[in-house]
Amino acid sequence: MLAQVHRTDERALVIPTARACAALALYSPAQPIGRYALLLTLMAAHPQAVPLRALLPTGHRMPALLLLAAGLTLAALVLWSVRPLRRFAGDFLRTALTDARALHTGPALVIALWTGALAFPALQAGVMVTVARALQMPVPTADIMIAYLAAGIVAGIVPTPGGIGSVEAALLIALVGAGSPASVATAEVLGFRLVTVWLPLLPGALVLAVLVRRKAL
């Protein structure tokens, strides 16, 4: 009997691939939607805060758009020509739509999803402001938050693991455009990435090791 329960518990921990991908698909648009909403709100309140055109020079706008269009076209052709991928994509879309409809039928789940989507970029922007104040950066708080949110969106055009490289460059350009000295902006970006990316790796690795040891993963 105990062995049967143990096997049942093990089966309960297995998440189908389509459903796991659907969960990631729901998370992926929720975070940028929250970021866009927060950015637009701050820009409406402070329209002259940051010269956003400085984040993407005029000479690079068209190549970036062409690169994005070429990537989307290539992905669509691959999905259409490879039957197993096309079947998997169909199952994934059906599961994602079903889960999205089920999620938005419960008010508590809707509040949890979209509150988290807004809270995450807001807290990250708060860390950015805190580091800036520790470095005595001569830039208003709203400008720093707008620079962070806008830089994160622009950095998404260049897909890199964890945004390494693209986020730092976009943040540096945005902060300098907001009026910060280059040396202070560089220290700000390094301090922000240290606090939000590199330091959390240690407790994350410890938690992962505990979960693996307990066979929760």
Which class of secondary structure composition applies to the elements?
mainly alpha
Bin the strand percentage: under 5%
Q: Using DSSP, what is the number of strands?
A: 0
Write the H/E string, N to C.
HHHHHHHHH
What is the terminal-to-terminal distance? Answer: 23 Å
Uncertain runs are: 1-12
Helix fraction by DSSP (H/I, runs of at least 4): over 70%
Radius of gyration: 21 Å
Q: Characterize the largest beta sheet: strand count, sense, and whether it forms a barrel.
A: none
Q: Assembly state here?
A: single chain
The pLDDT mean sits at 76
Shape: globular
Helical element count? 9
Question: What descriptors fit this protein?
Answer:
mainly alpha, globular
Textual characterization of the structure:
- By secondary structure, the chain is mainly α.
- The protein has 9 helices and no strands.
- Helix 2 packs across helix 5, helix 5 packs across helix 6 and helix 7 runs antiparallel to helix 8.
- It is globular, with a radius of gyration of 21 Å.
- The relative contact order is 0.11.
